[in-house]
Every structure is written in structure tokens, then in C-alpha cells.
Amino acid sequence: MPNQPNQPGHSGQQAQRRELGAFLRSRRERITPDQVGLPRSGRRRTPGLRREELALLAGISATWYTYLEQGRDIRASDQVLNALASVLRLDRYERGHLFQLAGHAPAADPEAPEPLAPEAAAVPLLLQPHPAYIIGGTYDVLSHNPAADELFPHLTAATDRPPNFLRWVFLEPAARDVLVDWEPEARGLLARLRTLAGRHPGDPRYTRLIDELKAGSPEVRSWWPQYEVQARQGGRKRLRHPGRGVIEYAYTAFHLAEQPEQTLVIYSDDQPRFRR
């Protein structure tokens, strides 16, 4: 039943909306026009950006943003909140606070590694010598074993960010040698990314990854507009092992119970081999 004006929950929601407006106003006032590339035009009555300027930069209506800052009873989407957080240059803690005040789950920090429970991270090591790894929602490789390192060269090489299976397939030259049937495998992988991204509209983790893939891969630029979708699943694929040649692997995908977008992938090579 909706809260009525005389109910305790109603006053609590009003207070939270007022707090949201105050938080947005405080962060708007600390951003100067110079920081966002706007020219200075005469004297300003208030510090920082005007409401109209912030709304324009965030791609939303100035009237609607004014209502939000005034604590009116309106709801902002994740996409709008991400846009505001970006323009206001909020750090990870401020971004999470913004989402909480707006009544949403805390926003995912695009720079932070996806958390993985230690007991889950240990599973690929227990599966050695079968190649195994755990991937997150954006295909970051969260855990892997030595057999996976051997089968997928350069996938888990030390970098300043988590290794990512999508970046490896489309941007690492070695992937086209390892994946014997590279094009259908790559198309399927991109279709699965499209499916996952559709569940998280406006999530900067996905938009940044997609933009990076488009910039570096002509295939992604060509295939992405075709809007193919596909669920994560098991199957079979031919891979070129560095010491044993081309092998047909059966692979199985298990979704983690606590984090269903995290997936354990295990490869088995019990099937007959293909010659080079």
C-alpha cells in the first residue's frame, strides 16, 4: 500500500529526497565552468555550475533536474544518476551515496575490480590440470589456473587492470591462432556481451568495454549493429594447444549461486584430437 502523507514512511522519504537535493546542490556548486569546458560569462550569483548547465551536460531536462534538486517526488534512473555522477566528477564513495539517496542499489564502480569470494576463487586451482577460470559480468577473468594460462597465452598477463576474455579474443593477435574457428566463436561471445549489456543499461562498465572493443576491432564495429543476442552456455570448441596441437574441447559453464553473472568455465579434452 502506498505511503500516505500522515504515515511515518512518507516523512522519511521526504527527508531522503531533501537530502538528495542538498547533496546534488553541494556537488554542483564545487564544479567550475572551466572544469567542464564551459566559457565564463560575466559574474555569477552562485558558485559552481548553474542548474541549466549541469542538466545540459548530463543530457536531461533543466526543469526535471530542478525538481530533483528541490526534493520533488520523482525517480531518477540508473542512466541519469550515472550521467550526473560523471558530470559532477563524483568519486566511488560519492557515487554510491548518490545512488543510495536516490533509492537505488549502490552503483558499480567502473574502476573497481569485481569482488569474488575467496572460496570461489580457489575452485579453478582445484580443477588443475583441466583449464578453468571464473569470469565476471563483463568477462573480466577473476580467477584461473595454470592450465588456462597455458591454453590462452597472454590472457592473464600482468596489466594495470583485470584480464578480460573479450579484450583477449578481439584485441590479442594470439587469440586468432588459439581459437581455430575464430569468427563463429567471436560472434557468439559478442552476442553474449550484448545480452548482458542489455540487462545493465547505462552501466559504465559495459559502455566503456564496448567502446574499447569498437575502437580496436573492425569486426566489433561491423557486428555490433546486427544486435545478435545469446545466453552463456556450454558446448564444444576447437582450440590449438601450444604443445599438443588442435584439440576439440568440451566446455561447461556454471553460474555461481551468490553471483549469477559470475561464471566458472571448465574445459575437458577427453574427445578425439584434430590434426593440424
UniProtKB/TrEMBL annotation:
Please, which domain of life does this record's source organism belong to? Bacteria
Which CDD domains does UniProt cross-reference here? Answer: HTH_XRE
Domain (HTH cro/C1-type): residue spans on this chain: 23-95
Instruction: Give me the ranges of the annotated region Disordered.
Output: 1-21
InterPro entries, per this entry? Cro/C1-type_HTH, Lambda_DNA-bd_dom_sf, MLTR_LBD
Q: Which residues cross the membrane?
A: none
Q: Where is the composition biased (Polar residues)?
A: 1-15
Which Pfam families does this UniProt record tie to the protein? HTH_31, MLTR_LBD
Recorded hits in PANTHER family, A to Z, give: BLL4672 PROTEIN-RELATED
The protein in question is named Helix-turn-helix domain-containing protein
- Annotated organism of origin: Streptomyces coffeae
What is the organism lineage in this UniProt record? Bacteria, Bacillati, Actinomycetota, Actinomycetes, Kitasatosporales
